[in-house]
Write a structure and sequence with these properties.
alpha+beta
């Protein structure tokens, strides 16, 4: 599962597998916490992150929604997604 972005100790990944299950989503990791974030709704659908990291990940997802959906198309066809600019 390639890393598509890293910021403030948070790692964002996306599975690269043909037919990856919908809805389009990313996996966010911070220390011992992990969460799955729906790209379209910008909501956590599984797991949890600490409060501050949740806000950062959801804001980043909202900012980069179009890029993430394009990456999802690539990844769901077994292609590597592009890296996406981290929060600064």
């Amino acid at each position: 599962m390639p890393i598509i972005s890293m910021f403030y100790g948070i790692i964002i990944r996306m599975y690269c597998a043909p037919g990856e299950h919908n809805p389009p989503h990313i996996h966010a990791y911070y220390q011992n916490s992990k969460a799955v974030v729906d790209i379209r709704t910008c909501e956590i659908t599984e797991g949890e992150l600490p409060g501050k990291q949740t806000k950062l990940v959801l804001a980043w997802t909202e900012i980069h929604k179009e890029e993430l959906l394009a990456d999802w198309e690539l990844a769901s066809h077994g292609e590597l997604p592009f890296k996406i600019e981290p929060l600064k």
